[in-house]
Amino acid sequence: MTTATNLSELTGDYVIDGSHSRIGFVARHAMVTKVRGAFNEFDGKISIDGDKPENTTASVSLKVASIDTRNAQRDGHLATNDFLDAENHPEITFVSTSAKQVDEDNFEISGDLTIKGVTKNITIAFAFEGVAVDPYGQTRVGFEGSHTINRKDYGVTWNAPLETGGVLVGEKIVLEFEISAVKQA
Q: Where is the Lipid/polyisoprenoid-binding YceI-like domain (predicted)?
């Protein structure tokens, strides 16, 4: 394992390993608890410039129909036009526009997040978790990050009032990224 102080060694192009990564979300439910979910199908690329981290780029595409909250009925509802409208907007995308190294192991990646046809620029804080060579000789890097969005900013407005006050689904959604990426030859 190495630390971010050896960033120049990390320079190169990487592909996100979907079987060892998680891109998920957390939403408030019924004003009293949280529901966690993830997208089971996604792909992404990262191009790391270790000598000039500000030149680092990233892009990710999530398949909306692969949403998984461990409840098939809820997943089906989330895929409808009430929420993510998978039929007309089959992907959620993020394409970086800038990168910044905050300190030795922390970075900020800004970019355009598109959900349901609406694009907003966001900044995601990421922590560098390390680098390792796996048993197959592949160089892997790990990053973890999160960012909170307001779903209504993306046209995701459906809700239901509760008898006790409040609403069924919170507006704030925490996006979670646990990324393992493999360096390409």
A: 13-182
Location of structure tokens 């592949």: 138
Which tokens belong to 129? 């978790």
Q: Which domains does the chain have, with CATH numbers?
A: 4-183 (2.40.128.110)
Checking phi first, is residue 130 left (phi over 0); if not, alpha (psi -120 to 50) or beta? left
Q: What is the pLDDT of residues 95-106, one digit of tens each?
A: 999 999 999 899
pTM for this model (two decimals)? 0.93
Kindly tell me the burial class for residue 98, based on how many C-beta atoms sit within 10 Å of its own C-beta (0-12, 13-18, 19 or more).
middle
Q: Which residues contact 147 (CB under 8 A, 6 or more apart)?
A: 122, 123, 124, 125, 174, 175
